[in-house]
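Retry 2 of 3 after timeout on previous attempt. Resubmitting structure tokens to design endpoint.
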């Protein structure tokens, strides 16, 4: 809470410069992607998979009550499980998983089965519903802080959240992040903006990565 207030005050005072956009990652071959995931040192930002379009988030919304929210569809639940299985098959090891407070994000992390516990962080809540959003908002800066945090050696961090948050934090190159898509970033201490986009992987791309990881 204090950190968010300080960031907001700094922005209003002009102490924090306008956010710098991150360039879209270059295309990588499946075997290079498999090696990157196996090597760790990444922050993996995943947009929650497909949801039930007949449902809508209530206003006000109760994060403790999934019945007041738009939830994962059966297809979305299958996507979450499949992406988790693909990351395990590629040799990815996670240090931690952090999600927004929405059930669709928390459920995604559970279904992926990559960590025993996933932390819920309100700073990752859907930026499209926030009164103060945009690249210089406290919420965007909180996401950038997560993308800058270097994981322990050989491990990666998983973030499961929403498309607007990443677009605000990393720039318009990520405004089209698809449901279930993973954007991989490498923290770059001392280099503005503190992280670099490594890859974007759609759900349908994992088959080739898993095959490459298996040496096929």
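Retry 2 succeeded. Sequence:
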């Amino acid at each position: 809470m204090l950190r968010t207030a300080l960031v907001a005050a700094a922005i209003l005072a002009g102490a924090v410069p306008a956010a710098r956009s991150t360039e879209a990652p270059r295309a990588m071959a499946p075997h290079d992607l498999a090696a990157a995931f196996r090597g760790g040192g990444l922050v993996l930002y995943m947009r929650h998979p497909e949801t039930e379009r007949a449902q809508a988030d209530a206003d006000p919304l109760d994060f403790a009550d999934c019945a007041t929210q738009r939830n994962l569809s059966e297809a979305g639940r299958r996507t979450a499980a499949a992406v988790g299985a693909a990351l395990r098959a590629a040799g990815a090891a996670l240090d931690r998983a952090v999600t927004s407070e929405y059930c669709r994000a928390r459920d995604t992390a559970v279904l992926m089965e990559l960590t025993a516990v996933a932390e819920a962080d309100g700073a990752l809540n859907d930026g499209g519903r926030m009164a103060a959003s945009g690249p210089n908002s406290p919420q965007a800066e909180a996401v950038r802080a997560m993308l800058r945090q270097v994981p322990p050696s050989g491990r990666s961090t998983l973030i499961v959240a929403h498309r607007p948050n990443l677009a605000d934090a990393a720039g318009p190159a990520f405004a089209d992040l698809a449901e279930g898509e993973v954007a991989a970033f490498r923290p770059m201490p001392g280099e503005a903006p503190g992280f670099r986009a490594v890859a974007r992987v759609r759900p349908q791309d994992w088959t080739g990565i898993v095959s490459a990881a298996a040496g096929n």
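Attempt log closed. The first strand starts at residue 43 and ends at 47.
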